[in-house]
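Posted in: Structural Biology > Protein-Ligand Complexes

Title: Requesting predicted complex, 2-acetamido-2-deoxy-beta-D-glucopyranose in pocket

I'd be grateful if someone could produce the 3D structure tokens for the following input. Sequence and ligand are given below.
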Amino acid sequence: MKTITVWMFAMACLWCAFDGCRGTLLTTACMKFEEDYNFKEDKYVGTWYEVRRLGESEASPHEDCVVMNYRLGDQGSFTILQSYQVGDDGTPIYRSGRAEPKVYQEARIPKFLERFNTTNPADPDISIDIVATDYISYAIVYSCTSINSTHYAELSWVLSRQPALAKNVVELVNLFLEARFTREDQKWRATQQTADFCKPSLVEVADKHSAGVRAFASVSFVLFGILLAQMFQ
Ligand SMILES: *[C@@H]1O[C@H](CO)[C@@H](O)[C@H](O)[C@H]1NC(C)=O
Ligand SMILES: *[C@@H]1O[C@H](CO)[C@@H](O)[C@H](O)[C@H]1NC(C)=O
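-- Reply #1 --
Done. Output follows.
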């Protein structure tokens, strides 16, 4: 019985019921992550689906179906194409952006400054820390941006290579979140990624298409090789 109560308490702290936690999350001190790993930009590129979110951006608090495509830009930067949907009758809304690497002497994790073409010119770039990733299934991203002399706006996302995380990865991600995000106001929302809610996005199609083009190119190369071989028989 005791374990059930503890478990329910833990779930209540970690998750919020539907609209219970849609608001900007404020803090007076950003979290520090000490994970020491050698980030590989080229392995982080490609498509990511947002499956969980902590906090909301003030500008657009009702985003679901967030899907993004990262490509390598110059000097360790990324160019980003992102789409999201508001409500189940919405259609994908697109934005493009850029993430520039940010160098900190003390930093042990990759840090970027991100900006979209929809960002208000008066707003600062958003800080993005990639606190954990295995590149092939999940990434946990943390953002903490100063809003005035005393407060920061906190946001965090769990990204997945597929619209849903595999069960074994869910367990790993839960362990990480439970251990690090321990403040009572840090409640995660599972964001919508189901096919019946989310309309197809060009961000996904673009990635599948380029993979298709790559497959087509190699098929034509093989056919060309066969043709050449026949000509010289
Ligand atoms: C931002 O970029 C997206 C994708 O390239 C484009 O569809 C959209 O019109 C742009 N929005 C603005 C405000 O420039
Ligand atoms: C900073 O913003 C927070 C949240 O809006 C507010 O409570 C706080 O008083 C502000 N601090 C200053 C110094 O303006």
